[in-house]
Amino acid sequence: MLNNDKESLYYFNNELNRHEYFWERLGGKPNFEGKTILDFGCGTGALCLNIAKDSPKKIIGIDIEEININFAKKNIDKNFPKYKNKIEFKLIDINQWKTDYKFDYIISNETFEHALNLDEILNSMYNLLVPKGKIMSGFGPLYNFFNGDHGRTRAIFPWFHLIFPNSFLIKRINKKQKKQITSITELDLNMYSLNDYLSIFKNSKFEIEVLKKNCSNNPFTLIFKLISKIKFLEEYFTFNIFTILYKK
Hints:
Layout: H1 5-16, H2 19-25, E1 36-40, H3 46-52, E2 58-63, H4 66-79, E3 87-91, E4 103-109, H5 118-128, E5 129-139, H6 160-163, H7 166-175, H8 194-202, E6 207-213, H9 222-227, H10 234-237, E7 241-246
């Protein structure tokens, strides 16, 4: 959750240097030439700009955070004007979006862990894709991982957001902020477990073309990868998912 343009610019610049890992974990960047792409949860627009270099027909980035869309629009106008006719940013809830657009690809980076009602969102995505269209998504940390609360519950110690009751965490959060919450989901965390995601993907209208877990080049994560192979610990030591979902 970004609060101002300074934070947005920092996040944007940081994201610009990370997309090679996103594509690598999904088996490589597709040929986007002449394609129509939707960036779901586009944030500050960095991934849209990464794709724009590959001569797509059209890119639309959508987000439900107004500060993200405002920054993305101002940034492209000021710093990337050559892509203004190629990229469009919209403040929209995908489940409420009425559009005639059909997309070859829906791309989503670090968004599914925040998306409430993901099963409904996948249905909306299915309807927005052309036949043989694909969703390409990578996201994490998952909620049951040691920092799966993204620091937003202020639990401080690893996995403590799972150990403490939600009522305790909510009361503690409300003491330190003006905006009061009644649920952890109001922190933009869907609280889905690994098994929740696997079930949602399996029961969707899509075919699962790729599904990878614990993708990282950081040697520190090796211990998590090894421990996650123990079945009853997998839920708590799986930190991300990268998946490609295919519309038949």
